[in-house]
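FW: tagging you since you asked about this chain on Friday. Here's the raw sequence from the shared folder, copied in full. Didn't touch anything.
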Amino acid sequence: MSIAADENRHISLSLSEIERLCPVAKALSSPMRVRMIALLSIRPMNVNELAEALALPVSTAALNVRQLEEAGLISAEIQPGIRGAMKLCSRRIDSVSMRLTPEMQDGMSALTMQLPIGSYSSADNITSECGIVSEHAWIGETNAPRAFYHPDRFRAQMLWFRSGELEYRFSLGEIDPSQVAFIEFSMEMSSNAPMYREDFKSDIHVAVNGVTLGTWVSPGDYGGRRGRLNPSWWSDTSSQFGLLKTWRVDGAHSLLDGEELSGVTLGDLALGARDYVSLRVGVHADSEHVGGLNLFGEKFGDFAQGVVMRVGYAK
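HL: got it, structure written out here
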């Protein structure tokens, strides 16, 4: 089976792609195969080396390699060896995402738009600890809220602050607001603690067109391993990755990762009242848990995306 990966070596799967999703899910269901992928993240290895490292019979290792290869998660190349040909295995994919929400109904279409995390229209009441980095270097001064308006901020791949709020503005394009069936936003984020701390709560709020959808209590600031997309210069002792969170509003309610969040509906958002859709995300200074916010871009963290808006609408 062939799986097309983007330049970040990421594959995205959904319920409409059962023939692709099932082999990947099956390949990742085995702890043994997951350990193989971990070994191949260090360096390419042949089947004999994998069998020895995992204390497996060579035949068993070969069978698991074949399943990973068929799922498109690793690549295997036949090369000449001392005792004949050998199969040299390499990890092919850095990250996998699976959309398990219902597919579009007949007569429906979807618009997906993505903004870089640095393309916010405003950064209000930002407090330190705070900062912005690109794929290659720091942007502006460290712990200086004014750095959030540095001209290089559009290159941001990770940003953080203790409290404050960012606003992103999306266009609905040619979509008639009255035909919108749902609207959702997804971002990779976490709390922001000194260095990192995985039990550091933060109340992160999200509002659309000035209407608060609800608050997500982030469990912590994640480190302990490197983010899958992080550049080599980023310190091992700093925040590494977040959780991919999705807020969705439809005609009945608002959801967070598929679970009911609030009674806010599309009608409350007044999508036709302005020329853009406003998304505001941040941490209020008077929240119960003022634990900051880390926001990850396409080339930081675990997920190769910025701030994504997806709109379902009638054709």
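FW: The first helix runs from residue 18 to 28.
HL: agreed, and Confidence is low (pLDDT under 50) at residues 1-8.
FW: great, closing this out.
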